Amino acid sequence: MNPMCNVVAERVALGESLGDVAEHATTCERCKLTVALPGSLAKTGHAADPGMGFASRVTAGAQHRVTVRRRQRLAAISLVSAAAVAALVLLFVRPTAESESVAYVPEALIRQLPSTNPDPAKPDPWMPKPPRAVDKDVRSLVHLANTERSMRLGARWNRLEKSLAPYGAVLKGTQP
Fold this sequence. Notes:
- This protein has 7 helices and no strands.
- With about 180 residues, the chain is mainly α.
- It has a domain at about 5-40.
- α1 runs parallel beside α3.
- The chain is elongated, with a radius of gyration of 47 Å.
């Protein structure tokens, strides 16, 4: 592509007169097509003007979109806030451990029903175990949960201080 062709294309795009490159534009096929392009576009017959009321139509459409978005935003905010209020109500109204539930019956209300076990030699499986019969696992868990025993210091500090001595010398700026 000739540099003169670039100058012709630039002047046609800007709508300027060709001036000193007009001679080149008459001889070059590519430049002839470029110069003829605005004329062929003008012959298409499409109106460049959008017509009367274009600005008002665009403004009305934009305002409609803004109001629709505002309504959707308000609806979404109200739904989210209603869900949050419902969650808070469920959180604070839910039954606590002390309140009566379907599975909890106080011992005072339990009537002593006759045993369904006809053989008195066999223990009744429905009777509670005596309080002295505690599982070994429960005993070990209670032993591990003893915080007073666990809080005692059990580290040998002399051994720890010996291994940290070089770091103390570095911090003080002296060699051991």
